[in-house]
């Protein structure tokens, strides 16, 4: 049996990021063969992944990055099972790796992001799986968003578990830094379901109309009036739940659409993405 030195253990630890005891155990089992030991550590991570695949991931971190010219934004969320794990350096480093990979690869989808090659030739998903073996919890990229626009604004909430990207158009020569952040904060707080009423899916519209009718009926309103009352309630739903029609939380005398137009004539939002890790 090969003699396993502290230098060997440290070398494997540097290669894999696994704990010292896990590295020593893997090297002993592999009789000093580094590649075999590395494979054993990977299998350990995969066992954790398989064993804990149904576990809930209600903790973690959301990160965002906007390109230097402000025309592209990336938003990622890396989730884990418990709050203590979300605070450890290895988890934070992995979350930053996920974001850095998104920026470098400009991946179109979450699947492309997870498949993106790292500096050691392994995929991002393999790095995630390896850390599962070290930490002993399920780790998963729960969301990835990639937006390109004239200007993109981002906001990460103070709990680091909610984040937003906002795509703006008709910017002109205006400085939209402040209004972009304000709108992003609005989205985090008010959770709009769509940009405007045209973005609300038909199933939601039908459900809101039926709810409105049932409420009116329970209040004793005449059947002939139910449709009109339900439409009124639907318009209220649009005002409260679509971004451009919502009242601005910092000044409810204006809607978001009016706020944008006051900043720069014609300025509006073309898209937004909200990501949250929900406990």
Automatic annotation (TrEMBL):
GO molecular function annotation: translation elongation factor activity
InterPro entries: EF-Ts_dimer_sf (IPR036402), Transl_elong_EFTs/EF1B (IPR001816), Transl_elong_EFTs/EF1B_dimer (IPR014039), Transl_elong_Ts_CS (IPR018101), UBA-like_sf (IPR009060)
Chief location of this protein within or outside the cell: cytoplasm
Signal sequence, start to end: none
GO cellular component entries: cytoplasm
Keywords: Cytoplasm, Elongation factor, Protein biosynthesis
Pfam families per record: EF_TS (PF00889)
Domain of life: Bacteria
Entry keyword Ion transport: no
Cellular compartments annotated: Cytoplasm
Role, per record: Associates with the EF-Tu.GDP complex and induces the exchange of GDP to GTP. It remains bound to the aminoacyl-tRNA.EF-Tu.GTP complex up to the GTP hydrolysis stage on the ribosome.
NCBIfam families listed in its UniProt record: tsf
Family, similarity comment: Belongs to the EF-Ts family.
The protein's name in its UniProt record: Elongation factor Ts
Taxonomic source organism: Hymenobacter perfusus
Source taxonomy: Bacteria, Pseudomonadati, Bacteroidota, Cytophagia, Cytophagales
